[in-house]
Write a structure and sequence with these properties.
By secondary structure, the chain is of the alpha/beta class. 37% of the residues lie in helices and 19% in strands.
């Protein structure tokens, strides 16, 4: 019986990979306009639904969250595994609940133990890979995993505290991906690897590709925040696409794994611009606008394939609103689209009525592969379909 390769063997093989990815054609039009064909490697293409899917960030999963998600037609969630404080028994319960209710969980692996902060990328990556691979083996239903969070703005290896320029930090993250990716694929060949959500969409992304990591991640992820999310921030992915195009990777999936608006942010904007404290109705209306307008625009532009709103429950509020109006008011008007008692804010009510994901169904579609062949394949909106030709 063949033996599964050890982590050490897989890492050694990864270290031998070349840094220059082979150029692949990006002229692979589909017959079905709602489907994208991505040439992954010679003789291998991914087929995925071009229509956007709304997902959401959650802090935990309980029957209340399940009900809220089901009523809004949302089946994909992003939930953090805080590595340094990870409680497997809690995650066991939450994953069983999600599996029973058809909810797909993308764990965000974040907050490594501080003992690794002074390690080099080459020393840190194998430890990170082993921990994440254990998670994937423990929960085989996981289809996506995300590697670190906003690492370009805050991490010992890839953030400003490393003392290196942004592009060089991107190269370091690219080296990290090349070491981690094969280990995760060995643990679960069906998992799709998502980069950490980045604030920068230029030099950091370019550095990742320059490190030869084109085939060491499956989805590029960014974060979109700003005073008015629907404006300039929402278009930042176009900068990332230009970098991807330069490395013959334009058709790879591009996601937003955080967008939204907190009450504290709007409070600061209002005080700065009008010197008037916003009312509860103002805060609710502004949050709704920062969800509704970008989501409706996305139906037309399709610049992102999946977008994760931040977030379902209350939490992660800036101190300004809490200090001005009190803890309960501040948390009820934070990033969450439901209040502390579980009652809906207008944003959630709109999502429940809008049923944004309703058109997304598993279906058959005819596509034209990079070699010119037309083929009918099954397209699952949750995950890409791998086609060999």
């Amino acid at each position: 019986m063949p033996r599964r390769p050890t982590t050490t063997a897989v890492l050694a093989a990864a270290a031998l990979l070349g840094h220059a990815p082979r150029a692949l054609p990006q002229t692979a039009p589909t017959v079905d306009a709602d489907v994208v064909v991505y040439p992954r490697a010679p003789g291998v293409a991914w087929v995925y639904d071009a229509r956007p899917e709304l997902a959401i960030n959650v802090q935990e999963m309980t029957p209340r969250e399940v009900r809220l998600l089901r009523d809004a037609g949302i089946r994909l969630v992003r939930m953090s595994i805080w590595w340094a404080w990870h409680r497997p028994e809690l995650w066991d319960r939450m994953m069983r609940l999600c599996d029973r209710n058809g909810i797909s969980v993308m764990p965000l692996i974040t907050a490594p133990p501080q003992q690794y902060n002074r390690s080099s990328v080459e020393r840190f990556a194998p430890v990170f890979a082993r921990f994440t691979a254990d998670v994937l083996r423990r929960y085989p239903s996981i289809r996506y995993v995300q590697l670190l969070n906003e690492m370009d703005t805050g991490s010992p290896w890839f953030g400003p505290e490393s003392g290196r320029p942004l592009r060089e930090r991107g190269r370091a993250y690219g080296r990290f991906l090349r070491l981690v990716y094969p280990v995760l694929k060995a643990a679960n060949p069906n998992v799709w690897v998502v980069t950490g959500g980045m604030s920068d969409t230029g030099d950091f992304v370019r550095g990742i590709y320059e490190a030869g990591a084109r085939n060491s991640f499956d989805v590029l992820a960014i974060h979109v925040y700003g005073d008015h999310v629907w404006g300039e921030p929402w278009g930042r992915g176009d900068h990332a696409r230009r970098v991807m195009r330069a490395f013959d990777d334009e058709r790879k999936p591009l996601w937003v794994t955080e967008f939204g608006m907190s009450g504290g942010k709007h409070y600061l904007i209002s005080m700065r611009e009008t010197r008037r404290a916003p009312s509860a109705r103002d805060l609710d209306a502004y949050q709704l606008e920062n969800w509704r307008r970008p989501l409706e625009e996305l139906q037309e532009s399709r610049r992102y394939q999946k977008v994760f709103g931040f977030q379902l429950p209350p939490g992660d509020e800036t101190r300004a609103l809490i200090e001005a109006r009190g803890e309960r008011f501040g948390m009820d008007h934070s990033f969450g689209i439901v209040r502390m008692d579980g009652s809906p804010r207008p944003t959630y009510t709109w999502l429940r009525e809008r049923q944004y994901n309703a058109p997304l169904r598993v279906r058959r579609a005819t596509v034209r592969l990079p070699n010119g062949e037309e083929r009918t394949v099954t397209v699952d909106p949750l995950v890409p379909t791998v086609v060999r030709y």
